[in-house]
Virginiamycin B lyase (Rhodococcus olei), 374 residues
Amino acid sequence: MQRLQRRHSNGQTALTLLAAVATMWSLSAAPSYAAPLTGFAEYPDPLHAPCEGILHEPTGQIYVEEIVNPGSNGNIGSLGVLDPATGSIERYRLPVPETTAGGAAFGPDGNLWFTYFGASSGVAFIDPDTKQFTNFPTPNPQATPTDIWPGPDNAMYFTESFAQNLGRIDVTTHQMTEVPIPEGGLNIPTTIIMPGSGTRMMFSAALSNNIVEYDTATGQFTLHKVPTPGAVPQGLTLGTDGAIWFSQTIGAKIGRIDPVTGDITEYPIATPDVPIPSMGPLVLGSDGNLWSANGGFTAGSTIGRFNTTTHHIDYFPLPRVGSGPCDIDSVAAAHGALVIGQTTGGAIAVANIAELNAMGVSPAPLSSSGRGGG
């Protein structure tokens, strides 16, 4: 009973933090569409704290996770659909009372799947054609699932931050299962889940300082301990070399997990211009570089470009100071575009990777040798 009460308290704490974020937004009046600035096109979304923008390739629309958009049923967040041609955003309030959306990704069924949490928890999808929602509650209403991604087996996998489970839902039968994550309450898998190599899924366990792999075929977990204490690993991705690359929000490093040995090498990424990058999600771009959103927790406003061969990092300033970039769409990045939610800045930013590279932005170059770890 005490553990259940703690989970409920954690859920209320999450809602309180979301409310606090709302007080930080930029409330400046802006047109519905802003012309490109410093390599980025901006689409203002004030008052809604946009965190993630997901490209829908068939239509070119961008689905936006809006952390705050109170509705008549008492819900907290919404999903927006941004038309880049006009800058207009259609909003669809979540159907579950007193909740907001977590991570989102398109599934093999063509629907946009997302997690939701707050007064209750679960996963849901919206049909891009009908804009109708279908939701599936988790067994524990305070499980707090925070990210979701398609697996190799016609299923969506999601991380449950407070229940400490890895969840799976079949996209055809909608049967949901949960597996406890090793090390229990130390994990807090609040961040990105992504496909690993072969039949594996991978995610970061921030507080236990682990990168976790889960084999969907065998049900086995593999934990990779990050060498830097208290690094708070976040976004992760597979590199072109087959290695797992991940960011460290507190450790101010990018880590690489060798695909054969499992050894971890770390590369410092602080520069004189960006001494505390507060690096968040990391994605692999169409150019083979790793791109990161920096300052989501500290109202920062840069995008990082890390070369996995030279270990050199450049930072590109976003148009809005203190914009708090929350996430970068990995699918869009693979196709040559950066789609970035700016939570405190109240806007979606979009940039062409080739055009950014052509700008030659190179503030505070850093060439660093890696430090090995076990």
The longest helix spans residues 2-22.
